[in-house]
Every structure is written in C-alpha cells, then in structure tokens.
Design goal:
The complex is a heterodimer of chains A (about 110) and B (about 120). Chain A is mostly beta strands and about 110 residues long. Chain A has strands at about 5, 10-15, 20-25, 35-40, 45-50, 55, 65-70, 70-75, 85-90, 100, 105. In chain A, strand 5 and strand 6 (about 55) form a beta hairpin. Chain A is globular. Chain B is mostly beta strands and about 120 residues long. Chain B contains no helices and 11 strands. The chains are: A mainly beta (about 110), B mainly beta (about 120).
Chain lengths: ~110, ~120
C-alpha cells in the first residue's frame, strides 16, 4: 500500500499570499496518477487536479499541480477567501488507492 | 449536469447488512469508473471500493474485502454497495463518486453522501 504524507499539517496564510502544499509518497506513484481535492466544512471533496498537473473542469488557474514519482506539490498562486479549506492528495495508480491525511489552509 | 445521488444509509446493528445505491445522471454511465469513498466526520476520506465502466474489474480496500461488494447496472445507471458483517468502525458518511474514465479512478464528481451508523 502506498502511504501518502502531506505537509504541513496546517498552513496559516493571508489572502493574496502563495500557498505551497506537499504530498510525498512512500513509493513511486504509477503513471503519476495523483489527484488533489479541496474540502470545505459540510461539503463533499471537490476535484482540483488529476494526473499530477491537469486542472479539472472549472478550476481557476491559480491552482496548479506539479511533481512526479514520489514528490508532488499543489500551489495556489494567490489565495482567495474561498480557498481556505482542507486539501487532500490521492493516488490512483496502484490499488488500494490511498489518500493523504490532509493540509488545512487557514486564515492568518 | 452530472449528478450522483446516494441512498440506503441508516442505523444497523453490528453484524448486520445494508445496501447502498447511487443514482447517476447527466453522463454516459457505462463509460466511467465509479467508486465508493467513506469519511468519518473530522477525519480524511477513505477509499472503499471501485468498479470499471463495464463492470469487469472491481477493487476493494483491505478493510472491507470479503464483506463489501461493489456492483453496477449500466442499464439503470445505478451503482450499488452491498455491505455485510458490518462493524462499528464502518460507521461513516459514504460518498459515491464518478471516475475520470472507464478505468481512470480519480474522483471527478462526488455526491453528498449517505450516513451509515453501525451501533447496538
């Protein structure tokens, strides 16, 4: 089973700042099948990025994904008020698909 | 508009069974993998089961292997999860999610979930 470790656990930033979230895999993610999701309280997760770097439909271009192999990054170039939420990475290259434990982006 | 709507959750005793359903609309159902993911409030999501678009491939988490069975009826645009031998630790909000392709298992669209509570 591939274990995904996200860091930091919490990121305290102000609107307009840049956010950099990390997701590290315990072994290489096949075909870079790595996705990022955003979740707000009381809502289902929403897909942001798939295939490590492809933005999902309707996702603003301030969200970008990068990385390969075992190290992946989600970058939010300029935080908007609606971006404060919890972010999860997920690998879907090798069964069992697994999630990271999440990074909370909170308002400083 | 893509929609997936879960149903079938409820309160069940340990050792009991429950069948969850997911009604899909707004896309060609048979062309997309489908998955079940659960989440305990306050915790991160946990993948449970997935099935390919044609239904010829299924995958289950080790924690539910042998107890849960995922299936689909492409003629009725419906996904199901048969849950047997339920345990207290299966208590969670269960989401149905549409994949990115027939054998592409990222979770493109999620429903709002159905709550399963296992308790005596």
């Amino acid at each position: 089973e591939i274990v995904l470790t996200q860091s930091p656990g919490t990121l305290s930033l102000s609107p307009g700042e840049r956010a950099t979230l990390s997701c590290r895999a315990s072994q290489s993610v096949s075909n870079n099948y790595l996705a990022w999701y955003q979740q707000k309280p009381g809502q289902a997760p929403r897909l942001l990025i798939y295939g490590a770097s492809s933005r999902a439909t309707g996702i603003p271009d301030r969200f970008s994904g990068s990385g390969s192999g075992t190290d992946f990054t989600l970058t939010i170039s300029r935080l908007e008020p609606e971006d404060f939420a919890v972010y999860y990475c997920q690998q879907f290259g090798s069964s069992p698909w697994t999630f990271g434990q999440g990074t909370k982006v909170e308002i400083k | 508009e893509v929609q997936v709507v879960e149903s079938g959750g409820g309160l069940v005793q340990p050792g009991g069974s429950l069948r969850l359903s997911c009604a899909a609309s707004g896309f060609t159902f048979s062309s997309y993998a489908m998955s079940w993911v659960r989440q305990v409030p306050g915790n991160g999501p946990e993948w449970v089961s997935s099935i390919s678009g044609s239904g010829d491939s299924t995958y289950h988490a080790d924690s539910v292997q042998g107890r849960f069975t995922i299936s689909r009826d492409n003629s009725k645009n419906t996904l199901s999860l048969q849950m047997n031998s339920l345990r207290v630790e299966d208590t969670a909000l269960y989401f149905c999610a549409k994949g990115g392709g027939s054998r592409n298992y990222y979770l493109h669209y999620w429903g709002q979930g159905t709550l399963v509570t296992v308790s005596s």
